[in-house]
Amino acid sequence: MKPQVTEGSKAQATPVPTATYRAWVDQMFAYAMLACGLFVLALVGLIIYELITKSSLSWHAFGWKFFFQSEWDPVNDRYGAFPFIYGTLVSSLLALLLAVPLAVGVAVFVTEMSPRWLRGPLAFLTELLAAIPSVIYGLWAIFVLVPLLRQYVEPFLAKYFGWTGIFEGTPFGIGMLAAGVILAIMIVPIISSITREVMTAVPQAQREAVLALGATRWEMIRTAVLRNARAGIMGGIILGLGRALGETMAVTMVIGNRPEIAKSLFAPGYTMASVIANEFSEATGNLYLSALVEVGLALFLVTIIVNILAQLLVWSVTHGTPARSHG
Question: In the predicted model, what is the mean pLDDT of residues 276-282?
Answer without folding.
Answer: 87
